[in-house]
Amino acid sequence: MSSFLIENLTIYNNQEKLVNLFDNKIKSLKIDSAVAIVGQSGSGKSLTLKTLLKLLPSNLKSNLKYISNFELNSSNISFVPQNPFTSLSPLSKIDKQFFCEKNKKIKMLKLVGLEKLVLDRFPSELSGGQLQRVVIAIAISTNPKLLLLDEPTTALDTKNKELILNLLQTLQQDLNILMLFVTHDILSIQNVCKNIVILKDGTIIETGFVKDILQNPKEDYTKQLILSSFKNRKHRK
Ligand code: ADP
Ligand code: MG
Questions:
Q1: Closest Cα partner for 148 from 101, 90, 81, 84?
Q2: pTM for the predicted model, two decimal places
Q3: Ligand 1 pocket check for 56: Cβ under 6 Å
Q4: Which secondary-structure segment (H or E) carries 164?
Q5: At 63, phi and psi to the nearest 5?
């Protein structure tokens, strides 16, 4: 069973602290099954993931302290970025973008609900929803212990959003994989994540079970996140 506990995560731009996760009451973050990090734009969600991926922009410095039974390296950690249209190479067929053997590619595609003929397609020949499935298939093909997702449904339409969220929920249950799911849309992760972390100005201000936080948010900021997610939903329907 994989375990991952973050005890310190700070990110600096020269003297300015952009992120300090545990500057408030909350002093550590345990990633247990699937955890959502929810915050407004600019709250430090993407930088937090980039620190774990060791992919911070070169002008920024970070301090990271964690306790885990696996190393944070590319064989244990995978990443699903926001925009499936830009995360694959446009010049290669899907087949060439996987790094495993053929049978495994087909198995992974099947897991995300795609047929093997997709391997013979270029990214431009697939829809956004199909592309994000491919990106997820590639991400899980290395058997990661930890999967990081940065707004994986934001670039998709409502129907594909639902499909991808259902898929992630199934994968989470079927594969033994820790997930850290970043989003600004708090209602979207209800069925995927058990725990939620609310990020404001680079600091965790509230955390708990998703259903508790949705039913009984303590912070005004969290109430606003719920309200704006709710309005967004009504607007879409
Ligand atoms: P989120 O993903 O929650 O929208 P980010 O993690 O991208 O937010 O950014 C958090 C904060 O750090 C923002 O205020 C952003 O402007 C700032 N920031 C992001 N990247 C850099 C950078 N390379 N240099 C300086 N500041 C940055
Ligand atoms: Mg971001």
A1: 81
A2: 0.95
A3: no
A4: helix 158-174
A5: -120, 125
pLDDT tens figures, 187-231? 999 999 999 999 999 999 999 999 999 999 999 999 999 999 998
Residue 162, exposed/middle/buried by CB under 10 A (0-12, 13-18, 19+)?
middle
Which atom number of ligand 1 is nearest to the Cα of residue 44? 6
Q: How many CA atoms lie within 13 A of 49 on its CB side?
A: 25
Domain 4-76+184-236 has CATH 3.40.50.300: yes
Residue 236 has pLDDT above 80, yes or no: no
Task: Choose between 151 and 15: higher pLDDT.
Answer: 151
Sign of the alpha-carbon torsion through 155, 48, 174, 135 = positive
235 pLDDT above the threshold of 90: no
Place of tokens 């300015």: 16
CA of 91 to the centre of ligand 1 (A): 30
Closest CA to 168 of 157, 151, 184, 155: 151
Over 70: is that where the pLDDT of 161 sits?
A: yes
Establish whether residue 39 lines the binding site of ligand 1, counting it when its CB lies within 6 angstroms of any ligand atom. yes
Distance 77 CA to ligand 2 centre (A): 18
Q: Is the CB of 110 under 6 A from ligand 1?
A: no
Confidence at residue 234, expressed as pLDDT on a 0 to 100 scale: 77
Return the best residue to mutate from 11, 17, 18 for the ligand 1 pocket (most ligand atoms within 8 A of CB): 18
Distance 181 CA to ligand 1 centre (A): 17
